[in-house]
Amino acid sequence: MSDTLTSTFSLRPATEDDSPAIKSLIWQVHINPTGLDWHHFTVAVNRADEMIACAQLKPVPGDLTELASLAVRRPYRQQGIARALIEYLLAEAPRPVYLTCRSSLGELYEKFGFQRVALEDMPKYYRRLHKLATIFLDLTRRNETLFVMKLG
Q1: Residue 139: Cβ within 10 Å count
Q2: Does residue 1 surpass a pLDDT of 50?
Q3: Which domain holds residue 100?
Q4: Nearest-angstrom CA–CA distance, 131 and 122
Q5: Burial, 71: exposed, middle or buried (Cβ in 10 Å; 0-12, 13-18, 19+)?
Q6: How far apart are CA 65 and CA 114, in angstroms?
Q7: Do 12 and 84 have their domain in common?
C-alpha cells in the first residue's frame, strides 16, 4: 500500500460500536444483510476514526470460511480500500475461502486468485444459496447471475 493510502485510512478489527455503521453500509450498498456479526469484521477508518468500509471473514455451514460483506462508502471508492481489506483478510484466512458475488464482479476477485466454482462442485450450502439467488435475480429481471468463487 502506498504512503498516501495508508495516511488516509487504516484497517482495524471491528468493535461493537461499529455494528450500527456496518449494518447501515451493507443496506446502503444492497448486499446480503444476513450474518453481520461485528466479531468477524475488519473495518477501514478515516483519520477521524469514522468507518468508511468493511468486510468480513464469516463462518458458514460445513466448517467453511467466506469472504463477505465487502462495502466501501461512495466517496471513498477507487482509492484501494477494497483491495486493502481483501488482502488483509486473505493474508491469515484458512483455505479454502469462498465468496459469492454478482457475475459482474467476478473479474475483480479473479485478480486475488479466486476461481468460479461449477454448480456440481459447490458445497451444499452454496448450491442452495445459488438456487435462491437465481430465482431472485430472475424475478428482478437483472442481467446478472450469482457466482460462487473459491480460493485455495
Answers
A1: 8
A2: no
A3: 96-152
A4: 11
A5: buried
A6: 13
A7: yes
